[in-house]
Amino acid sequence: MAGFEVTLLGCGSATLTLRHAATAQVVDLRDKLYLVDCGEGSQLQMRRAHVRFNRLSHVFISHLHGDHCFGLPGLISTLGMLGRKGELVIHGPQALEHFLRPVLAVFCKELPYAVRLNLIDPCRHAPVMEDRSVCVWSIPLKHRIPTCGYLFAEKPSAPHLLREQTDFYRIPVKELARIKQGADYVTPRGEVIPNSRLMRPADPPKRYAYCSDTAFAPEIIPWIEGVDCLYHEATFLEADLSRAKETFHSTARQAAEIARRAQVKQLVIGHYSARYESLEPLRAEAEAVFPGTVAGVEGMKLSLTEKTVLYGK
């Protein structure tokens, strides 16, 4: 089965710094790319991460704050200059249309491809997009303006043929399709080889939840319960809880508490305030509540298939 990976392009918050880029990440599932948020400079971060632009077909915007969407005009224009032909679908709240329509009219009048907006209600937990690989759901969040996270739920894959077994029994190619559909194999001598000996069950489908930006919101727990990986904003330390409440953001401890209650398998935090020069206090605060917490950094690649961090620490 092809992998399920997430590449973090930006883990900063509204104030840009030299330490962090604006929010964006790429979900790579079965060789299809989905961009989640597109802060300023996202296409440059995509270049640095060696993301293949031509494999991108869907963009998911959580809300209309600049650090989550200001990179869209440049990305749309660049895709046109690269000769893109296939449709690009951008999903997001209703305000997305007010932001993008003038940009498309002024700067992107002669694009060689179509840009389609799928306007969603960020206050509802509902399916947003579905293809052969994944179903994407919105996750209503608690922020100053309508905001939603996204849940990427991988679709089950087919069981795998055990090549060493099919070779051992010298099974003709014409029989393989029936075996993939669950049939046993009968040898020329009449021996019945059970399907379970010829096939390996498919790996369990994975789920990835993206939750940024949001205040502490326990109501999202039923929608993210047991996910393989949760990315949750951790803008502030608990010492700055009053500022977190004022701006409708979460502390690292609150992010970890959500992960603990939802019994997720992995927590990655991000969307750090510019006031913190080191991530270690944020990671340590979350670690005390949810052991194994990973502090996300630009360029980090997470593998849900292998349950590990491929790049970055």
Fold blueprint:
Blueprint: E1 4-10, E2 24-29, E3 32-38, H1 42-48, E4 56-60, H2 66-69, H3 72-81, E5 88-93, H4 95-107, E6 115-120, E7 127-130, E8 134-140, E9 148-154, E10 160-161, H5 163-168, H6 173-180, E11 185-186, E12 192-193, H7 195-198, E13 199-200, E14 207-211, H8 221-224, E15 229-233, H9 241-247, H10 252-262, E16 267-270, H11 280-287, E17 294-295, E18 301-303, E19 308-311
Parallel strand pairs: 3-4, 4-5, 5-6, 14-15, 15-16, 16-17
Antiparallel strand pairs: 1-2, 1-18, 2-3, 7-8, 8-9, 9-14, 10-13, 11-12, 18-19
Helix pairs in contact: 10-11
Biggest sheet descriptor: 8 strands, mixed
State the shape: globular
Q: Gyration radius, to the nearest Å?
A: 22 Å
For the largest sheet, list the strands in their spatial order: 6-5-4-3-2-1-18-19
Instruction: Enumerate the spans where pLDDT stays under 50 for 5 or more consecutive residues.
Output: none
- The CA-CA distance between the termini, in Å, is 26 Å
User: Given the helix and strand composition, which structural class is it?
Assistant: alpha/beta
Estimated helix fraction: 25-40%
Number of helices: 11
Average pLDDT value? 94
- Beta-strand residue fraction: 25-35%
Total strands: 19
Strand-and-helix sequence, N→C? Answer: EEEHEHHEHEEEEEHHEEHEEHEHHEHEEE
